[in-house]
Fold Beta-glucuronidase.
Amino acid sequence: PAKNYDDAIHNQSYEAQYLAKRITNESMIYDAGRTKESLSGYWGFGIDQYDTCLRAKWFEEKYVDQDGRYNPMDFSFDEWEKMLVPSSWNTQKEKYFLYEGSAVYTRTFLYKNNGEERVYLKFGAVNYDAKVFLNKEYLGCHKGGSTPFFMEVTELLMEQNRILVVANNTRHKDNVPTDNTDWFNYGGIYRDVELIRLPKTFIKDFTIGLVPDGGFNKIRVEVKTEGPAANGSASLTIGELGIRQSIEIRDGQGSVVIEVRPELWSPDSPKLYETNIEYGEDLIREKIGFREIRVDGQEIVLNGKPIFLKGISAHEESVKNGKAVTDAEIVENFMLAKEMNCNYMRLAHYPHTERAAQIADEMGILLWEEIPVYWSINFNNPETYRDAENQLTELIRRDRNRASVIVWAVGNENPDTDARVTFMSSLARKAKELDPSRLVSAACMLDHVNHIINDRLADSLDIIGANEYYGWYQTNFDNLVKLFENSKPTKPVVITEFGADAKAGHRGTVDEKGTEDCQVDIYRKQVAVFKRIPYVKGTSPWILYDFRCPRRLHPVTQNYYNTKGLLSEDKSRKKLAFYVMQQFYKDLPD
Ligand code: GCB
């Protein structure tokens, strides 16, 4: 044992063994609308900067050697300090604020079989990679900091169980996102950990939505099952629509198109229907909205009517809770957007919690959802592509029954190289293949020399997203007018970002950067131009409220915050520019 211990400690290739066993979207199960048990709460926690848990295999808990002698240990799980799950460790204790690296989380839990035949564990999100162990067995590693992952644990559960997770938020050049972003790199298990009890055969995937043919009178339902009863009949019930429909399942799959005319979901009238889907002993209860989104020339068309996306961009962050945002905080963000007369929000630059889309379904906010293919990621690395495509698939499979979600976005401001066009157009194709009923977009690159919207990726997109900072990074504001005159898009353009830094309450002349006066001046000029451009079909200024950012070192106007928010970081103060957007959206015709 001594030798093995030494080997493990010095084995520099320890990581490859763990990475070889990956948890991907293939093990995903449809979990919205299910009864689940949460394993959240206080877990034992140890910062493990040198990955000693993985090298020395602490998870094996070999407290005595084979001769029954005490084996000296460098840990004691049950005496460790406690860390709240879900949370970002950075906001829990000041000493962890800037920590990046591995940390070990562990807890025990009791389990009794209640008649279920299969059991899954779900993690809502762990940033960036998570290596999961249950009762000394290694279950696998998930990469990607913002999407859920699942593991079947039926055979491993006992009466007393120990779960252990090594969460590592180290930034890497080859990750998605890469090592340089314009947001704070929070660490930890920051969404729920859940246990899901299922029958032997269960519904693995479920897709429901209006057939996007302009008729508004057909619903398509698809069901995939897992388990030995691969042939049978599933049943869909939507009581309010008088639907009780059986769906024939053959080899674990079935689909049906039902003729019915539901009341359509829209931001003004976010109608949801109680929907049950059953197969054998399995039951999913969901609230579903039906709407159609498509593009017609330069128009974005919702339920047959052209719509302007009156939006705002948002990150998933709160000063108090880091990335572990609460339902109350999500509701607060949507309420602020509504106060600004928005009908739409861009959830930038990575998948936000699934609660956001569930709440947006209820409150009537259209959503743009995005994966963190952000700036210069390693477009030449096939592993990086695999990771990006896996994150995209996990996001789409998680949220594709949410009426609020209208756009899948495959990236933001990426240099226009051949490798990038190949990489991102493949992602756009993948999004369409997984979900032909929604629009695909990205925040494209603009040519700031010739002032033109000109990005080869646009051919693969339904909407051209454009981030422009005329008046701020592009200091000559007048070039914005040139940009719009020079561009001849054949598709709708959404201004996915514009804005300027301003410290809340910091006042001065319009020429003084970092003041509210300079910010509001840029906003006034921007909206005056948008009004005149017929192909601009939406705007989502950067950003709802200020956010933490390690790149922003101006001591007066930033202090490690990106202050382009329309509100201060704690949302207590609205800046002048907030009211410019509020008025702009109010004045736009419906
Ligand atoms: C951008 C990025 C966003 C930044 C913003 C800024 O274009 O998409 O992530 O935070 O500009 O403030 O520079």
Summary: The mean pLDDT is 96. The pocket of GCB is lined by residues 182, 349, 412-413, 467, 497, 542, 562, 564 (CB under 6 Å). The domain at 202-291 is CATH 2.60.40.10 (Immunoglobulin-like). Residues 265 and 445 are 33 Å apart (CA to CA).
